[in-house]
Design goal:
five-stranded mixed sheet; alpha+beta; (P)ppGpp synthetase; 7 helices; binds guanosine-5'-triphosphate; Beta Polymerase, domain 2; binds magnesium ion
Length: 227
């Protein structure tokens, strides 16, 4: 759990929060952190189990169906800032109701067909509820951004209670992740809107998408030779 930054203190001061309120907020975040980190652990384990089975020669038998899993609980500072943008106060109830990306998992797959195969398997599990799917692979963002964003809900069993907790799962391929990471870094630096550079960035997304499809076709040919 991270320690609140000066910037967070400033945001709270702007809202005329007293020091004891700040302590209350930190305490509340500490409890939320346990809930959200636990929900991340549950989903991450489910993904690792699917990956382990798929690596077995008897199933898909391809290593690295899931190339990498990254996780994070949204920092207190980011939560407060996001609520601020929506003109909302901080409380656990409001966070649970209004924010669906406090628990975040990014799963990076090798190939695009793996994305849907893993999601279908996860969604079929009896304790997993899919609340929302935003498919920016079928419908890329104007920036060129591609990824599958899914909001899941799972029950987590604690010492004396069971809580249903939301987790945002972003699924993308290695190629999509390469693009998103670099574009994110560049867009940060791009101070004013530059239509030419934006268009060129968007074109790189198309190039990467073509490259990725070609790799997939080559993989299919090789698999067909083995069978
Ligand atoms: P948020 O308030 O940002 O959560 O908006 P939203 O709920 O509409 O979420 P959206 O589906 O747009 O996804 C937000 C997340 O997707 C961001 O935190 C980024 O990780 C990623 N993302 C969305 N658009 C882009 C983009 O154009 N470039 C990059 N690099 N990442 C993006
Ligand atoms: Mg979001």
């Amino acid at each position: 759990m991270e320690i609140p930054t000066e910037e967070l203190v400033k945001v709270l001061e702007k809202r005329n929060k007293q020091p004891d309120t700040l302590l209350q907020i930190i305490d509340e975040y500490g409890r939320m952190f346990i809930y959200y980190q636990s929900a991340i652990d549950e989903i991450e384990t489910k993904l690792k189990i699917i990956d382990r089975e798929l690596s077995n020669p008897g199933t898909i038998g391809r290593k690295n169906v899931i190339h990498q899993i990254q996780t994070r609980v949204k920092s207190l500072e980011s939560i407060v800032k996001k609520l601020e943008r929506k003109d909302l106060q901080f409380s656990r109830e409001i966070v649970e109701k209004e924010l669906s990306d406090v628990a975040g998992i990014r799963m990076i797959c090798s190939y695009i067909d793996d994305i849907y195969a893993v999601l279908d398997s996860l969604a079929a599990q009896s304790d997993v509820t899919v609340l929302e799917i935003k498919d920016y692979i079928k419908n890329p963002k104007p920036s060129g951004y591609r990824s599958l964003h899914v909001i899941l809900e799972i029950p987590v069993f604690f010492f004396k209670e069971t809580k249903r907790i939301k987790v945002e799962l972003q699924i993308r391929t290695i190629a999509m992740d390469f693009w998103a990471s670099l574009e994110h870094g560049l867009r940060y630096k791009l101070e004013t809107d530059d239509p030419d550079l934006s268009r060129r960035l968007e074109q790189t997304a198309t190039t990467i998408s073509n490259l990725e499809n070609e790799m997939l076709m080559i993989r299919s040919k090789i698999e067909a030779q083995i069978e």
